[in-house]
Amino acid sequence: MNIQIMTLFPDMIMNGLGTSITGRAMEKGILSVNAVNIRDYAFNKHHSVDDYPYGGGAGMLMQAEPVYQCYKAITDTMEKKPRVLYMSPQGKTFTQDMAEEFAKEDELIFLCGHYEGIDERVLEEIVTDYVSIGDYVLTGGELPAMVMVDAISRLVPGVLHNNVSAEFDSFQDNLLEYPQYSRPEIWHEKQVPPVLLSGHHVNIEKWRREQSIIRTAKNRPDLLKKAELTEKEKILAKSIEL
Ligand code: ADE
Q1: Does the predicted TM-score (pTM) go above 0.90?
Q2: What amino acid positions are annotated as catalytic residues?
């Protein structure tokens, strides 16, 4: 998958995504991330990319032209125009379902705003999706873009060592993940649940499913409403939620 990120802070993006699992996927050539500096497309001698908003108000706005020239430089040689995701608290809240949808694309462009935002006219021309990572306001779109690239790229085949692990993670089937334990068997006087040491796979799966339901009922009853449960599981969930 090829990802282009339009930003005023390319180092922030490349340092963040160049590390750990996304960094390894980039080295292996499964994922390519290219942070493009919008300032390189400034059209004045001071290389400024921001200006005061018409009508007054606090702060500065990113101007339309540098953003547009940056977009043109990225897409001019492309046959099919990729989706352009604009990071904004006014967008649709990013979910695992959206990550799955975006993971099907071969190319994606992220646009990160700064200051008080970007001139509306260029957004109208190039943006296909407005996406927020939650109901809080950050200083810029770089962290949201990194969050989204992380969530999307781990769904791309080959990025994780083991493709099953993405499938069974939290939110799959609208249930949270069950608790996990590794060695030693006893730590701080806490024992690993005996069923996990039993080697009985059917019982282990049953226990894990129950734990997922219990956790979801306790922490995310809103998610549980969307999960597919058997009648018995519904009774278990009700007993926790009450
Ligand atoms: N830019 C500023 N805050 C944001 C948020 N919560 N999500 C996406 N982009 C943003």
Answers
A1: yes
A2: 89, 116, 154, 169
Ligand 1 pocket list (CB less than 6 A): 87-89, 132-134, 136-138, 141, 144
From the number of C-beta atoms within 10 Å of its C-beta (0-12, 13-18, 19+), residue 191 rates as exposed
Question: Rounded to the nearest whole angstrom, what is the distance from the C-alpha of residue 169 to the centroid of ligand 1?
Answer: 25
Q: Indicate the DSSP class of residue 29.
A: T
In DSSP terms, 83 is beta-bridged to 108
Which string of b and e fits 101-119 if b means at least 16 CB within 10 Å? ebbeeebbbbbbbbbebbb
The residue nearest atom 5 of ligand 1, judged by CA position, is 89
pLDDT tens sequence across 154-170 = 999 999 987 666 665 66
Q: 172: CA distance to ligand 1 center in Å?
A: 25
Please tell me the distance between residue 44's alpha carbon and the centre of ligand 1 in angstroms: 28
CA distances from 204 to 98, 141, 210, 223, 232 (A): 31, 42, 10, 23, 18
